[in-house]
Amino acid sequence: MAYETQCGGCINYDFQGDYAKGYCSWYKSYYYPGDSCSHQQPRESSSGCYITTIICDVLGNNDDSFVLNTLREFRNNILQKDVKYLPLLMEYDVVGPTLANLIADEYKKTQDKEMWISFYNFYLSATANFIVEKKYSEAVSRYQEMVVSLKDYFGIEDINITIPNYDMSQGGHGKLRLLERKEEFNA
């Protein structure tokens, strides 16, 4: 893989092209993909989306499942359209790739699906059901409980996330996407 020991190959880096600076969520600054640092965490084959990692990679379900499609529609049609969900989307994009890799690594070591089946039923399936019932505040609450649970389980500290020029309309995918022009952020 290109950049395997540099910023461009790190899970904390939002790759914007070979000759463009990308955002590093670890240092909260912009770097070229060929730059190097002391915290470099190599990318895995994970999509960066820990929900997809759990549902598809660990549990073996289809990427086109009811739960994933319901969560994606909710993200696209509700979360991305309301500024009150901006912190939720940013956190997913910053913490998501790390969680996806930690989940995938743990599963490779243990091959234990039982915990993730329980997790799926209690958090993911329940959140999708709340969405179908149009109980959006309950869906968001259950999702937030899930994030806290995962961060606690894997020892990830809470951080205050602010990303300049964050493209909210593309948020919540497990990777950072920034606005093309700075003035779009202020619109």
Task: Explain briefly what this protein structure is.
The chain is mainly α. It is built from 6 helices and 3 strands, in the order βββαααααα. The radius of gyration is 17 Å and the shape is globular.
The helix/strand series, from N terminus to C terminus, equals EEEHHHHHH
Quaternary structure state of the chains depicted: single chain
In angstroms, what separates the terminal alpha carbons? Answer: 38 Å
Shape descriptor reads globular
Structure description:
The protein is mostly helical and 187 residues long. The chain has two domains: 1-43, Ubiquitin Ligase Nedd4, Chain: W (Single Sheet), CATH 2.20.70; 50-154, no CATH class. It is 47% helix and 4% strand. The chain has helices spanning 50-58, 66-77, 86-110, 114-132, 136-154, 182-185; strands at residues 13-14, 22-24, 29-31. The radius of gyration is 17 Å and the shape is globular. The chain starts with 12 loop residues before the first strand and ends with a helix.
